[in-house]
Amino acid sequence: MKEITSAEFDKEVIQSGKVVLDFYSSECPPCEALAPKFEGLANLYGKDIKFVKMFRQQNKELAEKLGVKSSPTLLFFDNGNQLSNTLSGGIKRSDIIYILDNMLTTERAKEIKSHIKPTVSEFDVLILGAGPGGLTAGLYLCQSKINTVLIDIALPGGQVSTTHEVSNYPGFINPQPGYMLSHNMSEQTKLCGSVYKVAVDVTKVDLDKKEVIIDEFETIKAKRIIIATGTSPNLMGVPGEKELKGKGISYCATCDAKYYGDKEVVIIGGGNSAVEEADFISKFASKITMVHQFDAFTANKQAQEKLFANSKISTLFEHEPRSFVREGEKIITEVENLKTKERTKLVSDGVFVFIGMKPNISMFKDKLQLDKWGYIKTDEDMHTSMSEIYAVGDVISKKYRQITTAVADGTIAAIAIAKKLD
């Protein structure tokens, strides 16, 4: 796999037959999550399809010309022609394989897959999710000399890794960059001896057998499982949102705010995430319009005061988005006044969405007892309704979801399991 620049684009991509090009950025957790998948697939498909990478920040003009609006973005080419398939954001290995297979004959795709051999590995504890709760559980377990594996579809850190700054984590006088706090947690657990299986596709979770299959071929078995899958951003379900995701609509300020220097953006939401990330985005954007469905923000008062003092930011209270449309280089956000039902159009260069989270439990939610909001119920030891299955962090039913509470959950579950296994 080769890294190229804009100057090499014609030679290495346009004139090179079948090619997949990865536009990546620095300080971009989704880019880091994609990297090992991209490299692994390059080893598998590399004889038939050329794999190249390009640093988006240093090749911005070409990226914009090719319609790349966020990082990472994968573009596919066949004999100089750019294919309509484009992947952005949290890219799954299976989605890449689907496109790669369609670039080849059915027979050749099957032949390549025939080289993938199923494997089985066994551990004492399997932690599904490597956010603060999972990482803390991994740290305590490995210090207890318990063979532990952490599995995550992205890199370790969870939502914290995409947070601009964390100012309320004990032990730090100054606010910490979210990615750095995540990195330090991850390195501490890794150096202790926990095994990492990250940036993978989770194919199947069988809580009865206590087995997880990743990337379609590796089965991981354990005596205990800790669910630490956290939450993911809610989608609005508004026309145009899905089509423009990663192409002007973003859910990660840390990843994409830097591409809106001296530009105008719209932010949807009014909770802590929306208000705090608006302040960060304002370091780049020239103008920000906040769209919030209620008549007041729900974020903490300190964050609100900072936002109201920011001359770059204006707010539309009691409004909701109804559609998103791209017109040239602009995104048209149609919003509705919830009182008058009048609709207006906001013209911007991009949209950021921060409207809350939902628990990541779709693969096993029918197996566990949940609360009325869909979060996993646990007892004081973080034990779920299933034997030998535990849950920690934002995915569980509780009043407050903070980094500190997730760390506490992980600590409790690890100590409880360690006592059981001893």
Attribute tags:
422 residues; alpha/beta; Glutaredoxin; FAD/NAD(P)-binding domain; 3 domains; 7-stranded mixed sheet; 5-stranded mixed sheet; 24 strands; 28% helix
Task: Give structural notes.
The protein has 422 residues and is α/β, with parallel strands linked by helices. It folds into 3 domains: 112 residues, Glutaredoxin; 179 residues, FAD/NAD(P)-binding domain (3-Layer(bba) Sandwich), CATH 3.50.50; 113 residues, 3-Layer(bba) Sandwich (FAD/NAD(P)-binding domain). The chain contains 12 helices and 24 strands. The strands form 6 sheets. Strands 6, 7, 10, 11, 12, 13 and 24 form a 7-stranded mixed sheet that branches. Strands 1-3-2-4-5 form a 5-stranded mixed sheet. A 5-stranded parallel sheet has the order 15-22-16-17-18, with helices on one face. Strand 16, helix 10 and strand 17 form a beta-alpha-beta unit. The radius of gyration is 22 Å and the shape is globular. The N and C termini lie far apart (46 Å).
